[in-house]
Amino acid sequence: MAPTELIRLQIGVVGLGRMGRRHALNILHLTPRANLLCACSPAQADIEWADQNLIQHGVHICSSFEEMVKIPGLEAVIIASSTGLHASQSLSALELGIHVLCEKPVTLDTHELQAIINKAQSIPETKMMVGFTRRFDDSYKDARLKIQEGQIGQPVVIRSHGVEEFDESGFFINYARQSGGIFVDSTIHDIDLALSFLGENIQPKKIWATGVIARYHEMKEFHDSDNAVGVVEFWGGEIAHFYNSRTGNQGYDNMTEIFGTGGKLTVNAVARKNRVEVTSKNTVQNDILPTWMDRYEQAFVNEVNAFTAAILDNKELPIKLTSALTSLKIGLALQESLVSGYPIRFDQEGNRIAPSASL
């Protein structure tokens, strides 16, 4: 008897920048239940990269999203295009009955994200997930399991930080102008982790943020910071403390601590490339993690495999869209507080309360 042929999800990748290329290669080589059917980008450099890396695997290459979604057999898309296109492309795909994994942020507008959620919920047979990759990291998954098992009691305070190396090339500052700000672009990953540890339905009560411009002085033009701290008090009494920096010189450093009533849990206390240590007379040395891509290399693979399995097995997606809305709401409020200097308050249903100048 011939072996049963493996059913594979037919996926297309939208955008072939650094993130899109990573997804395309992961689908080709590390996602056994998926097939990379097609990919698209309007950029000539991306098309040339696809010619060298994808065409030999039978992948259809298109210059536009509109052309790609017409390819017969397409079942799902990973949207890794420019942020400004995420919302419209997500909606178009959903309306065509195509499943969506969209990189964050889907949009910088909570009302627009709510409309997308409403659309997704109106077509339950079509699934959509936002790409919060850290949830699929093995260490964070283990931490979440230990919290669920009660190993540190009730979580009370979460402290999470992410430090990226200073970019000498000039690429980052141009990117930062349209990113939505440090809290929406970067800290939002830590915000999502806090929700995953404390509960998807948790709501913020009071939010406050501050920051400095240490090296990217051009940020004064668009009211952002390259080092920022945000504090979120939730209605359940829990507190989250976030710190993000764009000006590090130690590679990529991302660490999270969760303090509970019965103990403490730490993820990635030392940001090192591997477990190798070099000991000399006066030092013990570890190699650093170069970038966030290196830190979460396996998490990107896990993410696409989980998305694929949820669709093929008709199971609930591992991240709820409503959770992405809460993360965006918190990120935008932190960004607003960073600029204004004032705290922002919410009622127990997650609605904004009138501004207050007092803490």
UniProtKB/TrEMBL annotation:
Entry annotated with the keyword Oxidoreductase: yes
Species of provenance: Penicillium malachiteum
Gfo/Idh/MocA-like oxidoreductase N-terminal domain segment(s): 10-125
GFO/IDH/MocA-like oxidoreductase domain mapped to chain residues: 141-265
Family to which this protein belongs: Belongs to the Gfo/Idh/MocA family.
GO molecular-function terms, A-Z: nucleotide binding; oxidoreductase activity
Keywords, ordered alphabetically: Oxidoreductase
Name of the featured protein: NAD-binding Rossmann fold oxidoreductase family protein
Gene Ontology CC entries for this record: cytoplasm
One Pfam family hit: GFO_IDH_MocA
Transmembrane segments annotated in the record for this chain: none
GO BP terms, alphabetized: NADPH regeneration
